[in-house]
Amino acid sequence: MVSALLRRGARRLLALCAILAFCCAAAAQPAPISAGPPDPKLIEDLVAAGRILADHGLLDGWGHVSVRHDKDPDRYLMSRGLSADLVTAKDIIEFDLDSRPVDTPGLPMSGLFTERYIHGEIYKLRPDVMAVVHTHAPSLIAFGDTNVPLKPMYHRAAFIAFGIPVFEIREKAGMTDMLIRNMTLGHDLAEALGDHPAILMRGHGAAITAPTLQRVVARTIFLSLNATLQADAMRMGAPITYLDIEEARKIEAREGHGLARTWEGWKKKAMAKP
Amino acid sequence: MVSALLRRGARRLLALCAILAFCCAAAAQPAPISAGPPDPKLIEDLVAAGRILADHGLLDGWGHVSVRHDKDPDRYLMSRGLSADLVTAKDIIEFDLDSRPVDTPGLPMSGLFTERYIHGEIYKLRPDVMAVVHTHAPSLIAFGDTNVPLKPMYHRAAFIAFGIPVFEIREKAGMTDMLIRNMTLGHDLAEALGDHPAILMRGHGAAITAPTLQRVVARTIFLSLNATLQADAMRMGAPITYLDIEEARKIEAREGHGLARTWEGWKKKAMAKP
Amino acid sequence: MVSALLRRGARRLLALCAILAFCCAAAAQPAPISAGPPDPKLIEDLVAAGRILADHGLLDGWGHVSVRHDKDPDRYLMSRGLSADLVTAKDIIEFDLDSRPVDTPGLPMSGLFTERYIHGEIYKLRPDVMAVVHTHAPSLIAFGDTNVPLKPMYHRAAFIAFGIPVFEIREKAGMTDMLIRNMTLGHDLAEALGDHPAILMRGHGAAITAPTLQRVVARTIFLSLNATLQADAMRMGAPITYLDIEEARKIEAREGHGLARTWEGWKKKAMAKP
Amino acid sequence: MVSALLRRGARRLLALCAILAFCCAAAAQPAPISAGPPDPKLIEDLVAAGRILADHGLLDGWGHVSVRHDKDPDRYLMSRGLSADLVTAKDIIEFDLDSRPVDTPGLPMSGLFTERYIHGEIYKLRPDVMAVVHTHAPSLIAFGDTNVPLKPMYHRAAFIAFGIPVFEIREKAGMTDMLIRNMTLGHDLAEALGDHPAILMRGHGAAITAPTLQRVVARTIFLSLNATLQADAMRMGAPITYLDIEEARKIEAREGHGLARTWEGWKKKAMAKP
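The joint structure predicted for all components is written out below.
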């Protein structure tokens, strides 16, 4: 118990040092240089991704979606701090992987999402990940708070078969305000994510990854829907046949097939909202 | 049992006297004088608050939201009796803390919300409270009727950790029509609220408070959502890790951070409704 | 058992005779004469009632709402067979209490709701009833199929305390297509309703009554919502405090108070639908 | 065990042969010739059917609805691969019962729904079926995964009394990507459907049939709703009275009565969506 407290104390000290070091570095280092303008189609899709997730009730002013820069794997794109359904192309900002905004003179730090480190730290550890969502999707909260494992109910949510761990922030940082508000916590989360497609955050929400922007949106929608369906099925008092890992592998091998047409439907509906 | 009946009888007599006294006073006293025009931005936000809550299905023609006057802590602002989604700036009325309308010649009492005493009496006892909502949010009813304690499922509803009591009107007034229709019942409710952020009302709904208008709207939305999520989690048959009180304190200490941007999204959506 | 079969057989014979008698009578009798034009405001409210219930997901092309004629208690007003959200003032038809359309030359019987007898027969037996709804509201079906009694969860649904019986059509007519397709079945239903405010119909839906059009709409909305809330509460595994009959009586004594303003909000929202 | 593996191996070989044979045939055979233009009203209804189901949340870019050609029972009509809410009349394609598109030079195979074989193979085995829906309706998934039998809760869903089997693709093809991506799997599904009105697909969704386009839409809506209502009722801990098979037969004998007017309401609402 004592040693646990000591370890926790040491960890906090380290976290503090990391923050101080970052601040000093931020002051000392020049602002990162842009990797150049991304493909305008990527920006358009990023704006649509946020609108689609907001239209599904999965993003509000506290959640966000990002995509890796198509010209430089060490940069990612995300909106400044805005409710997803208010974002337009001109609100998209380029970040380096330490989650520092690039080339945005005059923009105050308070105009950025506090938890952008979720994105930067996952991009650092997972070169295969091209897009990330952070959501407070309601149906996921009960699974995060109870540690009941999510299992794939149907083919649209097959990726769940690869395992969805739960991040308990108390194990890393004790009692906090629950936010991933620095690189250290972002790194802890990315480590807990490991090779999995998504991770629940106890008492908070989830982070979801995918190899494309369209797939991270689909995964967020179907992870959330699967949670609802699984909770319902668990209450039916009968054994549940989940997707087998082999079925999931076969589905994921052709995943994306047909997604483009669903994307167009989602986008049309979301962009028509006032 | 007999003494209980006597106590109840005495209480009713007192309540009746209070009502009579109020009526006499109302007849005798001049109408209260206005504290002057409030900040137009406050009025705009109050109208938006009602629209946002109506858009979330949390207010109809029987619920209401108020804010303390920015020029005088002994006054509050609330609409006349109108469905929240029909209210405009010109429908906002100033009240004194006895819930008497200020400077509204010609407006009949029947044009006011019967339960405005919820607001006036809470503002009297709680100088820290700047905004109050009275709602019949459906998801809260089951918790009020069963006395199952609400617990915080995630950071957006952290304030629940400070305790949400239940008001049983029978203990104060026996069998009633359930309404808080005078200062005495309003005072009873405010006393039962104590220092808590909100109180459920058995067989009726809830009263929610906050230090700002934006936060009382957010608290109403997340109190309601938390009830749904908690009921779902309780059915999963696994232990639930709720937010710790220390986590809640840290979250509340920076609460409001980021709320402004979610507010803009909510407002845009609500005001676009026909 | 044998006597039950005999009784059932006798009953069917009676029903058949009733139908035959009706047909003969319909052929022999002249069409009923109109009681004169109703108050245009009543027609406007009847159209709005259907739109509001459709907007709440409680009426489609198979449910209907009617109101007693303001000039003649032996007449009622209801739309011809149309989806509630398509009805306009010119679709409203006058019926006598045998549910025969008045003064509508050229309108084929197939253009009327088959189950209009629900309305006519209730108006016959219940002079206090001024408006009737027949709905297939989803949340009511499970209560009708299980015979679990509906109980009032909160003040908006207080009238439930007066008892909501369940109509089992098999007891009256054996195996049927479930429809109240003649005066005999309508009479059976009205008898089972008795003095209650509403009745569930097993495997079918419900019939709801009230002393005004606005209240029958409110009762339909809150009966349906109460069913959802009660089912949720029953799963919480804790004793439920329902409204007491005395509370319900006090609420009903002033029921309608404040309903007009909620009605305006509902109507504005429903009529704005394309 | 060994023999099971052998049987499975043999089956896969057969499936492969079938695919190869189909490809050769497709290359060798001329494209099928059109049966001529269908009734424009049928096309209009087919487009509306997809929009109505999308508006109910029952079709997206991965589900589809088809109708048998009114001029030739060996042809069916379905949209090219598009999200149902984006389909217009010009997107409707004619298929032969081997699910080969007719007269569509220049259209790549990737522009078609992979699972169109569901439709073609059902039309082959079931001459009475005039319309087919393939959906991933969320409420059906739990029933498919648990094998809990669907039972009819109320008259709108009476057809469920005729039995809704579950298709376990593993029994036919082992571990797959769950899709009905060729004639062999389509035939297996159609055989499992037998004479039933619909079939659930474990871990995937459902296929629903009917003698008309309007009825297949209504059946999809009410199959989905019935699943929700039945799951709710099962949790009430009381015996449930389902519709009797005789009640269902009587209802189905006049099924369609009144559907036209509900269809108009659904269509108006769905077509008004942007």
